[in-house]
Amino acid sequence: MITNKKKLTVTKTVVQYSKPLSQEITNFLHSIAKDCIKVKNAVYERYSGIGSVNKLASVYTIMNEMRYCGLRTQLDLPTVYYETAVSEAVSDLKSNWAFIKSKIILEINKKENLKECEKIYIRTILQNNNIYEQVLANQKHEEIRNTAGEILNEKKLDNLIRRLTRKYHICPHAESQNRFTITPNGYSYKNGYLKMVCRTPRKRVAVPMKDNREFDRQLLIRIVGDHIEVTAPVEVKIKKHEDYENTIYAYIGYTDMITLSNGRIYGEKLGSMVTLETERLNEANRRRQIEAKAQDRKIDELGNKKYAAQKKKEHSKTTNFINTELNRMLRTEKPKRIVITRPITIEPKKNYSPYLNRKFSRSFDNYVRERIRYKGRLHNIDIVEINPKGTGSICSQCGAEGKRNTGQFVCGKCGFNAAIPLNSAKNIENIYNKS
Ligand SMILES: [Zn+2]
Predict the structure, then answer these.
(1) Ligand 1 centroid vs 146 CA: distance in angstroms?
(2) Is residue 67 assigned to a domain?
(3) Distance 412 CA to ligand 1 centre (A)
(4) Ligand 1 centroid to 399 CA: how many Å?
(5) pLDDT at site 302
(6) How remote is the CA of residue 431 from the centroid of ligand 1, in Å?
(7) Is residue 154 pLDDT above 90, yes or no?
(8) Is 140 helix (H, G, I), strand (E, B) or coil?
(9) Residue 6 reports pLDDT greater than 60
C-alpha cells in the first residue's frame, strides 16, 4: 500500500477475473509464466553473487546486459514480459541483500564482545555497497571514519562481515509459478477483452473478462485452472471527514479484535471465529489425508481445487467480518487519531512445530494492523503506534504491577479490576498522553 505524495489518493489492489479460457489460451499463458521464471533464474544466477552487490544499484546496467545476452531471442519472449521479469528479479535480489544485512545487524547488535565503535564500523560498511563489495572481495577499501578515536582491528571486523555474509547468503531460485506480470504497453482492453502481446509480432491474445473494468498500470496475471485472476493497483480518493475529531486508544487482541479505552469493543469474538475457521480447514485436511491414503497417493496428487476454494471461502468470511467491524468503529467513534501499540515481532525459529507455524500464520493480528493502517490513509486518520512495554502488566489506575488471570486484570494495590484488554487500552491512553 503506497500513499501518494500529494496525499490525495491511496493505492489499493483490486482483482478482475476472466471467463473460462480455451486450452490454447491457457497453454500460451502457462508458457509465458514458465519463460518468465527462466528469465528470473538467469538473473539470479548471474547477479546474486557477492561480487554484484554494488551492481544491483542500477537496474539499467543489468537490463542492458540482459537485453543483449541472447536469452530473450532464445526464449522468443516478447520484451514486455522479458524486461518485467528482469526487473522483478533485480528487486528480489535487492531485498535479499537487505535481508542479509538486517540479519548481520541483528547478530552484531547481540554480540557482547564487540565495542560500540566496532558495531558502528560494521554498520557503516553495510550502508555503503561500494565498500561492502570491496570488503567481500577482500580488497583494500577506503578508510571508515571512526568518531570514537579508538584503533580498530579492521582485519578482524572485515573477516566477521565476510563470515556473516556467507552465513546468510544464498542464491535464490524461483520454482515454476502460474503467474507473471505485464506492463501497460503489453496490453490493452477492448470490448470486454484483455488483449495481451503474444509471440507473434503485431498480434494479441484476446482474453474475455467477466466485467468491463479497464486498468492502465502493471498487472499481475495469475492462472487458476481454466481462467485468470488479474490483480491491478488502482487509485482511491482519500476521504476527508470534517466530523472526525476524536482520539481513540485501541488494544488489538486475539479474543476480541479491538477493545477501546472507553470500553467499547469491535470485532467481538474474532478469536473463536478464527479458531473455527482453522478447525474446519484442519478437518478438511484430515479428510484429504484419509482419502489420499485410501487411494495410495500423496496428498498433493489429489485435486487441490475444492480445498483451495474452501480455504478461500473460510478466509473471506473472517476478513469480511474484520473489515465490517473496523468500518463500524470508524463510523461510531469518528476518530481523527487512533493510538495502537507497535506489533510485537516474533522471530520465527526453525524448531517450531508445523502446528505452531500454522497457528502463527493464521493469526489475524497482522491483517488487522494492515487494515487499520490502510483505512487510516483512506480516511485521513492518524495512526500512532506506541511502544507496548508495560501496557499489559501495569495497573492503568495506579501504575502498580498487577495480576492477570482468566482474562481479568486485578490490582493488589488499588483494587482495580477489569478485563485485561480494557486495562491495556487504558494504559495505551495513559502512555500516549504522558509522552
Ligand atoms: Zn492499581
Answers:
(1) 49
(2) no
(3) 7
(4) 6
(5) 65
(6) 15
(7) no
(8) coil
(9) no
Expressed in angstroms and rounded, the spacing between residue 184 Cα and the centre of ligand 1 is: 61
CA distance 410 to 398: 12
Find the 389 Cα to ligand 1 centroid distance in Å. Answer: 17
| Amino acid of residue 178 | N
Tell me the CA–centroid distance for residue 417 and ligand 1, in Å: 8
What is the per-residue burial (b if ≥16 Cβ within 10 Å, else e) of 346-365? eeeeeeeeeeeeeeeeeebe
Domain carrying residue 257: 246-386
Query: 366 CA to middle of ligand 1, Å?
Result: 31
Q: What is the mean pLDDT of the chain?
A: 88
CA distance 34 to 347: 34
Tell me the three cell numbers of residue 407. Answer: 482474562
**Above 80 in pLDDT, residue 276?**
yes
pLDDT confidence tier of residue 147, bands split at 50, 70 and 90: low
Ligand 1 mean position, distance from CA 409 (Å): 10
Pairing relation of β-strands 246-252 and 227-237?
unpaired
107 CA to middle of ligand 1, Å? Answer: 39
pLDDT tens across 293-323, in order?
888 877 666 666 777 788 888 888 889 999 9
> How far does the centroid of ligand 1 lie from the alpha carbon of residue 434, in Å?
17
Contact between 166 and 205 under an 8 Å Cβ cutoff? The reply is no
391 CA to centre of ligand 1 in angstroms: 13
Q: Model confidence over 180-233: pLDDT tens digits?
A: 999 999 999 999 999 999 999 889 999 999 999 999 999 999 999 899 999 998
Q: Compute the distance from residue 254 Cα to the ligand 1 centre, in Å.
A: 24
Residues in the chain: 435
Domain presence at residue 161: no
Provide the domain count of the chain. Answer: 1
Nearest to 174 by CA among 33, 68, 61, 26: 33
Tell me the C-alpha distance between 64 and 67, whole Å. 5
Least confident of 233-247, 327-341, 361-375: 361-375
Tell me how far the alpha carbon of residue 365 lies from the centroid of ligand 1, in angstroms.
28
The alpha carbon of 419 and the centre of ligand 1 are apart by a number of angstroms equal to 13
Distance 58 CA to ligand 1 centre (A): 58
Exposure of 419 in the CB half-sphere (CA atoms within 13 A): 15
The C-alpha cell of 268 is what? 467481538
3-state secondary structure of 341: strand
Kindly state whether residue 364 falls inside one of the protein's structural domains. yes
Question: 392 in a domain, yes or no?
Answer: no
Distance 425 CA to ligand 1 centre (A): 15
